Amino acid sequence: MKLIKDKEFLRNIAHQIDLLNTLGGGVSETYVDIKKYKKGAVINVWAAGVSPESFKVVLHNNQLTLFSVLHNEENPQMAAPMFNRTFILPPQVDLGRIEAVHEDGQLQVRLPYYEGINQPREIQIKQQ
C-alpha cells in the first residue's frame, strides 16, 4: 500500500469531503454549554473541525445568533452552514459589553450583567 505523501493534496481532499458531507446532510458535531455566574453568563461552543475564522456572532436587538460557515477554498462562492443557534438574551445582560473569544478550540461568548442589577436600592419619597 502506497501512502499519499503530498500533504497539501490530502488537506484539500479532506476539506472537500467535509464540505460534501455537510452539503449531503451531515452536520458538524457541536456542543453548547451555558454557565450562569453572579456577574454574567458564558456561552461555550465546541465544534469539531471548525476554524476560528468560520465562527460568526451576531447581535440584533436582544437576539444573539452564533453560527459557522464552511467555505470552499477553491470556490469562495460555495459555502455550507455548519451549525446555527439563536439565544434570546434576558434584560439584565449589558448588550454593549458582550464579547466573544476563541481559544483552545472553543468559542466563548461572555454576557456581562448590568452593574448593580441585583442590589436593592432605596427609592426616595417625594413630598408634594
From TrEMBL:
Q: Which PROSITE patterns match?
A: SHSP (PS01031)
Q: Which domain of life is it from?
A: Bacteria
Q: Where is the SHSP domain?
A: 22-128
Gene3D superfamilies assigned to the protein according to its UniProt record, in alphabetical order: 2.60.40.790
- CDD domains to which the protein is assigned, alphabetical: ACD_sHsps-like
User: Family, per the entry?
Assistant: Belongs to the small heat shock protein (HSP20) family.
Name by which UniProt lists this protein:
SHSP domain-containing protein
User: What is the originating organism of this protein?
Assistant: Pontibacter korlensis
